[in-house]
Write a structure and sequence with these properties.
The complex is a heterotrimer.
Chain A: E1 5-15, E2 20-30, E3 34-38, H1 45-53, E4 60-65, E5 68-69, E6 80-83, H2 95-100, E7 105-106, E8 109-110, H3 113-130, H4 146-158, E9 164-168, H5 176-193, E10 196-201, H6 204-210, E11 213-218, E12 221-226, H7 228-233, H8 238-243, E13 248-250, E14 253-255, E15 261-263, E16 267-276, E17 281-287, E18 292-297, E19 308-312
Parallel strand pairs in A: 3-10, 3-11, 6-9, 9-10
Antiparallel strand pairs in A: 1-2, 1-4, 4-5, 7-8, 11-12, 13-14, 15-19, 16-17, 16-19, 17-18
Helix pairs in contact in A: 3-4
Chain B: H1 2-26, H2 42-49, H3 51-84, H4 88-99, H5 102-116, H6 126-150, H7 155-162, H8 167-196, H9 199-204, H10 212-222, H11 226-251
Helix pairs in contact in B: 1-11, 2-11, 3-6, 3-8, 3-10, 4-6, 6-8, 7-8, 8-11
Chain C: H1 12-42, E1 45-46, E2 52-53, H2 59-63, H3 67-99, H4 105-117, H5 120-131, H6 136-143, H7 157-181, H8 185-193, H9 198-209, H10 211-226, H11 230-236, H12 243-251, H13 257-278
Antiparallel strand pairs in C: 1-2
Helix pairs in contact in C: 1-13, 3-7, 3-10, 4-7, 5-7, 5-11, 7-10, 7-11, 8-9, 10-13, 12-13
């Protein structure tokens, strides 16, 4: 295992009674990276996360962390920590109590009282400062807002200095406004603390804006792994192309709507709809060859429904996929 | 841990069920003693021939049926009334009757009846028992029905009123059907509580209104009586069947 | 009767009052009036042959402080406390098992509830049959030549406690199960994730969060145990006189109704006091 790989998933599979949730997934997660698992509901991303955390055992395959095999270990013996989707804060403990909870354990053993105290008090105070919750340390979870609870869940996991931090759709319970703000905060926190993040989400905007690398999954299998730019600009399969943003398919070629421009020369099309979206206009059209495509135009565009126009695009923006059956090796 | 729990559960269930199973098994023992001799129905024949037992069983059934019917109807109406608008004193009294130890309920009812009998020329008998049973069953019925009402959507009755029904019509045609399973469960509860009651009944029953529990108690006190095993098995089996049947009926 | 014609013939308030009336009357007759009489009796004097007579006195209450009765109260408390604790210790793992048993939950729950729905009297008698000198336990031990003389298993405090635990275990399992069932499983996963082994998770997360269920179950068991009459009568013999037996005695053999009334009120006061002390703020009564 190369030194820069922290977490290695090797031919991981998980079968449940009614379905095959994960099918032969192999991944290398680099140390210090913000690594996202992206895909629709039911694609297996959460199952993979749970296998890394230790709540599910793989039907076949191995999980390696820092050069050691961990898939047979119970959760309390793995140096990974999870931020749950529902946060799972202990309602009977305060914010302080929640964060301190795991500090009495050291790799599955309860530490003696002397070892714990001083170093840990500092760590808890430090982490409370990092998530800006010093003022609320003695509150109970029920007295906190959704965003604050999420920060407690984060702090509780980070204070234990895990090798990998697992995050299961942590932003999905927040309102859209808060979500954008928290995205930036989470990214900054990851960079500052330097912990490797394994982040699960179904929101492609989230994945694109936060990640160093993204693994796109569908129906239990890996579709493509790469940087956000690579995945968006050079999708390897139709699924990835359609999942991230919108894609026009013309003949066997894909072109992103933002790459299509309306001008005086090019393929002929008839405008079928114009939707004003504030920062741009979404133009729906039908080509003379029959395909339905969309393009973007400036918000003050004079284009009207029913109008005949010409569209063109840069050949470099064309995407050719190798077919739906192609899977990443 | 899960395996440990399962092992423990086996022992726990054994603890709960084995004593009754042993009673049942030995009810078929031809010997009086707790050593197995041979299979025999003789104790069951003895039970069937015991006039006292039969009469007390009939009494118990009559009391249970009448008390259950009364308590279920009255209690259901009360639960509905309380759901519409609570009444602290009524809720409090019903709660009080639930938490009062049986012996206290029994002696206080006895005191009441004796005091009344100074003025009315009455004696303790089936009627006092039935009254007592209705009294203590009411709270059970109210609790069960009220619990079901807690999850009931008030707007259903409003819809009924909107469509032209009277208050009573809304209750009868919309709410009552919804409550049916809870009412059945409450009736089951009241019935078993009534059939089994010893403490209160023994205090307020008259000389000529013996109930089955009273007879069983006397037999138990007297010492070894294998016919008691037969009676016990019959009663447990009978009640068990009744409960299972009513569960099937509810699910249907 | 069901369809509106013109102004409402019976409005909500009237309907509700009509519905409540029978219960109100019955409760007054079977609950409140008897209680009132008991209160009155407790302040009167024992009658020459039967019942009560004047003068008014508080002697019945002062008599309660007699050490003879103090011992009985303490003994009842002790037996009830031991029985409740045993129910808790035995019932909690069973409730956990049922809550975690997945699809068969209802079956396992019914197996606990079913014996409880049959006769309490008979379930108490069953232990007489098992524990007596000629009972099956002694017979079996003697047949196996482990003992020669029968062990005195019946007619002592231990037998009473056993009978109480056997009778009231389901009362404890049900509220415990209800609380455990509502427990968020992700909390247990979070505890394991943070390093807690299964036993630690039980002690630091599960038990504290089950406190309301434990409270409810304990009260549901302790109060009836405190006032038990049947179990101590059948399984305890003449050696085990508890509060319940004492009360019953006053109203039958001893014919000291005023004292019996005072005893009853004392018992009730203890029960209500306990309920008040452990009540869950914000939870309605009925």
């Amino acid at each position: 295992m190369p030194p820069e790989t922290l977490l290695s998933l090797r031919h991981l599979s998980k079968d449940f009674a009614t379905q095959r949730a994960v099918v032969d997934v192999s991944l290398e997660v680099p140390r210090g990276a913000f690594f996202s698992l992206l895909g629709p509901s039911g694609c297996g991303k959460t199952t993979i996360l749970r296998m890394v955390a230790g709540f599910e055992s793989p039907t076949s395959g191995e999980v390696w962390l820092n050069g050691q095999r961990i898939d047979a270990l119970p959760p309390y013996q793995r140096n990974v920590n999870t931020v749950f989707q529902s946060y799972a804060l202990f309602p009977h403990l305060t914010v302080q109590g929640n964060i301190e909870f795991g500090l009495v354990y050291d790799k599955g053993h309860k530490k003696g009282p002397k070892e714990t105290k001083n170093a840990d008090i500092n760590r808890v105070a430090e982490v409370l400062k990092q998530v800006r919750l010093e003022a609320k340390a003695s509150r109970k979870p029920s007295e906190l807002s959704g965003g604050e609870r999420q920060r407690v869940a984060l702090a509780r996991a980070i204070v234990l200095q895990p090798d990998v931090l697992l995050l299961d759709e942590p932003l999905s319970a927040l309102d859209p406004q808060l979500r954008k703000q928290v995205r930036g905060e989470l990214r900054d926190l990851q960079r500052r603390v330097g912990v490797t993040f394994l982040f699960v989400t179904h929101d492609q905007e989230e994945a694109l804006s936060m990640s160093d690398q993204i693994a796109v999954m569908n129906a239990g299998a890996l579709e493509q792994v790469g940087t956000p730019r690579e995945i968006y600009v050079r999708p390897r399969t139709r699924f990835v192309a359609d999942f991230l943003g919108a894609m026009n398919w013309i003949g066997g070629i894909g072109v992103r709507p933002e790459a299509v421009s309306i001008c005086s020369e090019g393929r002929k099309a008839v405008v079928t709809g114009v939707t004003y979206l504030g920062s741009f206009c979404h133009i729906a059209m039908t080509l003379d060859s029959g395909e339905v495509i969309s393009a973007q135009a400036p918000p003050d565009s004079p284009v009207q429904p029913g109008q005949a126009v010409c569209v063109t695009w840069n050949p470099e923006d064309e995407v050719r996929c190798l077919g739906d059956e192609v899977r990443l090796q | 841990m899960k395996r440990g729990l399962a092992v423990y559960a086996v022992f726990a269930y054994a603890f709960l069920h084995v004593p009754l199973l042993i009673l049942a098994i030995f009810s078929f023992n031809s010997s009086k003693f707790a050593v197995w001799e041979s299979f025999s129905f003789q104790w069951y024949r003895a039970v069937a021939a015991d006039a006292n037992l039969i009469e007390s069983s009939v009494n118990s059934l009559i009391i249970a049926i009448v008390a259950t019917a009364a308590a279920t109807i009255i209690g259901t109406l009360a639960a509905y009334g309380l759901w519409k608008k609570g009444s602290a004193w009524l809720s409090g009294s019903l709660y009080l009757s639930l938490v009062t130890p049986e012996i206290v309920t029994g002696v206080s009812l006895l005191a009441l009846f004796q005091w009344i009998f100074r003025f009315a020329h009455l004696r303790l008998g089936m009627h006092t028992v039935i009254l007592a049973h209705v009294g203590f069953s009411l709270a059970y019925v109210v609790v069960v029905v009220l619990a079901r009402l807690r999850s009931y959507d008030r707007t259903l009755e409003e819809a009924a009123l909107d469509l032209g029904a009277t208050e009573f019509g809304a209750f009868y045609r919309v709410t009552l059907p919804y409550l049916a399973p809870a009412i059945a469960a409450a009736a089951m509860l009241a019935f078993t509580v009534s059939i089994d009651d010893y403490v209160i009944t023994s205090l307020v029953a008259g000389v000529d209104s013996q109930t089955l529990p009273m007879v069983i108690y006397t037999m138990a006190r007297r010492g070894v009586n294998p016919a008691l095993n037969a009676v016990s098995t019959l009663l447990v089996f009978g009640l068990g069947m009744l409960i299972l049947l009513s569960e099937r009926f509810r699910k249907a | 009767m069901f369809r509106r014609r013109g102004p409402a013939p019976v409005n909500t308030k009237t309907l509700r009052n009509i519905f409540l009336a029978p219960t109100a009357i019955l409760t007054a007759i079977t609950m409140l009036a008897p209680l009132a009489i008991i209160v009155v009796y407790s302040l009167l004097t024992r009658g020459a042959y039967v019942g009560v007579e004047l003068p008014w006195t508080i002697e019945n209450f002062t008599r309660l402080w007699d050490p003879v009765y103090g011992i009985i109260f303490l003994r009842s408390f002790w037996i009830a406390a031991v029985a409740t604790t045993l129910c808790l210790v035995l019932g909690f793992p069973l409730a956990m098992f049922i809550a975690r048993s997945g699809p068969r939950k209802n079956l396992y729950l019914s197996l606990v509830i079913l014996p409880f729905w049959t006769s309490f009297l008979i379930r108490t008698y069953a232990w007489m049959f098992l524990l007596r000198d000629t009972g099956i336990i002694n017979s079996a031990l003697q047949a196996l030549r482990i003992i020669r003389e029968p062990l005195p298993l019946l007619y002592n405090d231990g037998a009473v406690i056993l009978g109480l635990v056997y009778g009231f275990l389901p009362f404890m399992v049900l509220p415990l199960y209800a609380t455990l069932e509502r427990l968020d499983p992700s909390l247990l996963e979070a505890a394991a994730d943070l390093g807690a082994r299964p036993w630690d998770t039980l002690v630091r997360v599960t038990l504290p969060l089950c406190a309301p269920g434990i409270r409810a179950g304990a009260i549901l068991v302790f109060i009836p145990c405190l006032g038990t009459y049947l179990t101590s009568d059948l399984l305890g013999g003449s050696k085990t006189v508890l509060i319940g037996n004492l009360v019953q005695n006053q109203f039958t053999a001893s014919r000291d109704w005023p004292f019996g009334a005072a005893l009853s009120l004392a018992l009730m006061a203890i029960a209500i006091g306990l309920l008040f002390a452990v009540r869950n703020r914000g939870e309605g009564l009925l």
